[in-house]
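Troubleshooting entry. The earlier prediction with 6R9 gave an output that would not parse, so I re-checked the input for stray whitespace and re-submitted. Clean input:
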Amino acid sequence: MSEAFEAPAGAGLTAGQYKDMVLKAGQEPEVFWLEQARKLVWHVPPQQASRSDFTGDVRVDWFSDGYLNVSENCLDRHVRSQPDKLALIWQGQDEDQKESLTYQELHARVCRLANVLRRLGVKKGDCVAIHLPMVVEGIIGMLACARIGAVHVVLFGGFSAEGLAERLSDSGAVLVLTADVARRGDKRIPSKTIMDEAIARCGAESRVRHVLVVSVTGADVPMQPERDLFYTDEVAQEQPDCPAESMSAQDPLFLLYTSGSTGRPKGLVHGSGGYLVWAAFTHATVFDHKPDDIFWCTADTSWITGHTYVVYGPLANGGTILVYEGLPSWPAPGRWWDVIDQYGVTVFYSSPTVVRGVMREGNDVVRSRSLASLRVIGTVGEPISPEAWQWFHDEVGKGRCPVVDTWWQTETGGVMITAAAGCVTPRPGAACLPLPGVRATLLDTQGQVVDGAGEGLLCMAASWPGQALSIWKDHDRFRQTYFTTCPGYYFTGDGARREADGYYWITGRVDDVVNVSGHRIGTAEIEDAVAMDHEVVESAAVGIPHDLKGQGLVVFVVPKEEGVFHPSAVNRAVAEGVGRYAVPEKIYVVRDLPKTRSGKIVRRLLRKIAMHDLEGLGDLSTLADPEIVPELIAQVKAQG
Ligand code: 6R9
């Protein structure tokens, strides 16, 4: 195994060097990606980059003759070169709950747990479910699985027992890591009890042999003899060393069920080699990683963003991550800004939902904090309106930090389209330019490639190292979902517009595009226009059937102050921002919008509520706040 730690390629680049990299990755992808791969440590270095093929049965295949271990790349090589560097700073939601782990300490903790897993019979290729809040053990759990070649599947703490059961059955998890209780502000979520119910619901289908319980609050929980074990008791019996399994680059590292989608959950499978190359490369390139960074990605680890930019990217690059357990404005507005000041966070990566939420608290909150340590700030998950972008840039970045809006998906493993910090000039509201090696393409509805400026379905013409390999146990569904809409291409499900100079603007999921009298209207377009109205905090547009126009637009608006808000202002903003044809049929003034935990507005629900179709609203447990649904129904009824 090679010893030296080579700095990731993307960091510290000038705009010119970045352009050269884009060219090289485009012209000689094999050479370029092998070069990137060799920055990792391998047991057997790969001789070949991609053998992927988007036709026929579809194959996503990267570095497949190489062998490595992901946890060695994230830990051991840094322990050798910088054992005392902080790997992880954890701050609980109460001030006095905190912990800092050096690379050496994190390595030891991961090894102890890896030994526990092995002792409990977890084998290479087995699935382990991780159902924990933002505590250190969640990250240790992921890395411990990686160490022994187990496949982790991180499950959101807010899933209902039914939601968990579905995913436990589908993955066939043999062991579960859960908490006694999870905290969310003042709320307490009885994680262990919910998990017990989930396992019971799996019935004969359950393969869960053990449940390891992390004491987060120290609450008493029912323990089933033999099956249930306390985490701390188990790790205390083990040694802080554990040999790492040698994994093929194509061996699965994790499964992750996609958020907010309809139908059965899809367990996207990510591999070990390609995924880690992509995580490290994009983390370095997009955020211009520097060794002294304190990198804070606010995403929950149960989201792909948490996998790639809380854990794998920054740790592969030997960085220091900050993990904060709590909510942005609990116990009081400005909590996250205090965390940034307290720890000297240099890179802050969050979501437009968070930006809109904190915007709503007024400028005084953010202006009363220093935020001088910040160097780069970013968002992911949904389009950010130009107004929110500008506010983030001016008030949080103090006009000094590049703002990176990053477009990507669970399926892509890491960032695909962005304005890489220091290399690409951003445009507020635009996703900007594809990263090196990303062959983004627009196709029209006839499947023809759109050249130059234009609009179409956002597709990828070739594979990239971070691409998901398959859907767990259902490769045909993978092929059908992503490779049949535009044969020969990976279809993202998103629409996009491209300017003549290549900048991309995401128009939203194509299933969210509304067609009013033949005019195609992106819901994001409407919402951007509505956002121009300063009385409005947030809005969501949906299309519902309309006798004359095919579809009509309905807009849900969250006003800053309910009493003083005039719906006609929305009409004006849409007419001005988009055109008269896009003026909504109906505007509903509501307190909040239904969102997934990753902050995506669940338009499917809004559409049904707007149509007064209240049958089969589906599983609401994936919502950040399920209570909003009955409230919305009542508000819509009251407004006719
Ligand atoms: C990382 C993540 C993917 C979908 C994607 C798109 C939307 C994500 C975006 C964005 C506009 C951005 N999306 N980032 N839309 N601008 N910067 O979010 O993964 O949860 O799988 O969602 O989210 O619609 O297709 P995932």
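This one parsed fine. The longest strand covers residues 536-546.
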